[in-house]
Amino acid sequence: MSGRFITFEGTEGCGKSTQLSLLAGRLRAGGAEVLETREPGGTPLGEDIRHLLIHAASGQGMCPQAEVLLFAASRAQHVREVIRPALAEGKTVLCDRFLDSTTVYQGAARQLPSKEVNALNAFAVDGCLPDLTLVLDIPAEVGLQRARQRASDAPDRMEQEELAFYQAVRQGFLDLARAEPERFAVIDGTSSVEAVTTAIQSVIAERFPEK
Known about the structure:
This protein is 55% helix and 12% strand. By secondary structure, the protein is an alpha/beta fold. The chain is globular, with a radius of gyration of 16 Å.
């Protein structure tokens, strides 16, 4: 039996983590086996890479090429150690970010060549693609303000980027959603938590009526 793979995407501060947790709770209440995970991270190796990418002082000044390779390394381990085995067991996997974040952050926003980024993504995931990707869409300035307000200390390495970077990120996700409407669903993330939850429920009911 094969499970469902649902990913949550969006710019910083869009509410992905909150909505992922809420959806996990609802699915479990309905009897589903759910695995919650995140990227970068999800495995011991991935969490070490996450620290290097986001928090470690040694990560400051990292070049875009090194950055994209580290994200891909974390993802390759994540797919093989966690995601694919869970799906094979029939679990619903909910992931906070996946390959689309690399396409957008390192491709669109860092302006790395799309051909190379796409090839690296394909190599890392080895055909393991989401059944549904939920993009929580908010203006870049709103998301960045939220992200910096919630930080308990100084903004992390990604949160230190300029507004133009996050505007490119937002547009990148919208472009992906327009290109692959069969996989993506764009949710208005500026609404209340309850309204966003209701919108996600509607998408899940439409795409996966058996759930």
